[in-house]
């Protein structure tokens, strides 16, 4: 039976999102984005309390724990116009980055400028950068 740990190596604050990502075999960036979305949706206090309690309850993963293999989302250093988010998403979805940029523009106009601008800025700060 697999156990849930706080990540020792893939952490930004306490390793909760990294541990959840390893447990569910998904990229922890998606867990971090979900936590930020829930923080905005529910107000900061409830999710912050749950996060703090989880950081006290969950143990840190033991050293030499095998790493799980899954696709990681990175911002593309070599396929970027602003931050490389569309280049990284295009690599994950195996499509041309120009098509991904067009999709982003359409979604921006459908939802209004502000929500996509906030999402892009959050992605810019959370998603790590790498040459792809």
Shape estimate: globular
Q: How many beta-strand elements?
A: 2
Tell me, rounded to a whole number, the average pLDDT: 85
Strand fraction band?
under 5%
Instruction: Give the % helix.
Output: 55-70%
Q: How many distinct domains?
A: 2
Descriptive account of the structure:
There is one protein chain. The protein is mainly alpha-helical and 132 residues long. It folds into two domains: 1-62, no CATH class; 75-130, no CATH class. The protein is 58% helix and 3% strand. It contains six helices and two strands. It has helices spanning 16-24, 28-42, 44-57, 85-93, 97-111, 113-126; strands spanning 75-76, 129-130. The protein has a two-stranded parallel sheet. It is globular and about 45 Å long. 22% of the residues are buried. The model has no long low-confidence stretch (mean pLDDT 85).
